[in-house]
Amino acid sequence: MTTTSFYDGLLGTVYANAIADQRFVEDDVFTQLVVGADGPALELGSGTGRLMLRLLAAGHDVEGLEISDEMTDVCVTEAGRLGLRPVVHRGSFAPLDASLRGYAVIFCPLNAFSFIVDDALAMTAVRSYAAALKPGGVLALAGSAGEDALRDGTGWIRRPDVPVAEATLAQVEERRTPDADGRCLRIERVIRIVGPDGTVRRTQHGTQLRRLRPIAALAEMFADAGLDTLHAHGTDADYILTGRKG
Ligand SMILES: C[S@@+](CC[C@H](N)C(=O)[O-])C[C@H]1O[C@@H](n2cnc3c(N)ncnc32)[C@H](O)[C@@H]1O
């Protein structure tokens, strides 16, 4: 299986450590949707289970779908520690396998839908989500059209260090560069694992491409897939778009 290069190997380990305890404002929107759902929910790109395990622990009916074996292994290990038994489907959300059906809510946090940079494939994917919803079900995708600051390029920035083992840190540098036509954002990451004596033990580079989509572009896809009652939380820079299957 292919991933988007930040979620396996060394980069994946560092990502998993960096994200484990984080909470995001958008978590509340997805949580409210799952709490109010009339049936099971499916998280697309459930990763380490950061959000899904909280929802499961609170007694909600939520399954995950994840492409990275490393992320799923972290999720299953953490679930075991918490006494939870999550259902995590292994596979891709681009598009969703037709065997997955009958969900009351399908949601995709942290702009992961933007990994589908090809618009025709993205449209096929949105249709597959609509098909997997039961009547009245809600699709909720996080998205972003990018921020103005990015348009000028930001150069390399140092992100907070991430502890990865006893006395061992990952130093993370990142550069975000928009394409000339503003369609996509290229995110490059360099990770250096630094031991207790300060020497660099390992280095890994990764690059991700994310499609920048304004709300209106995603809304057009939702409408084409037959979803209605569209609602955007947030602004073009950072939003969640919801739509209902009639
Ligand atoms: C930004 S992380 C978000 C993880 C989790 N949803 C959260 O909120 O903490 C994106 C996740 O999507 C997964 N992913 C990326 N492309 C995917 C695809 N085509 N199908 C399934 N999962 C995918 C990655 O492996 C990663 O775990």
Automatic annotation (TrEMBL):
Which keywords, in A-to-Z order, does the entry hold? Methyltransferase, Transferase
Which residue ranges does the record assign to the Methyltransferase domain? 42-137
According to the lineage, what is the superkingdom? Bacteria
E.C. designation(s): 2.1.1.222, 2.1.1.64
Q: Gene3D superfamilies of this UniProt entry?
A: CAC2371-like domains, Vaccinia Virus protein VP39
One Pfam match, given by its short name, reads Methyltransf_25
Which top-level enzyme class is recorded in the Swiss-Prot or TrEMBL entry? Answer: transferase
Report the record's Gene Ontology biological process terms: methylation
Give the protein's recorded name.
Class I SAM-dependent methyltransferase
Recorded GO molecular functions are: 2-polyprenyl-6-hydroxyphenol methylase activity; 3-demethylubiquinol 3-O-methyltransferase activity
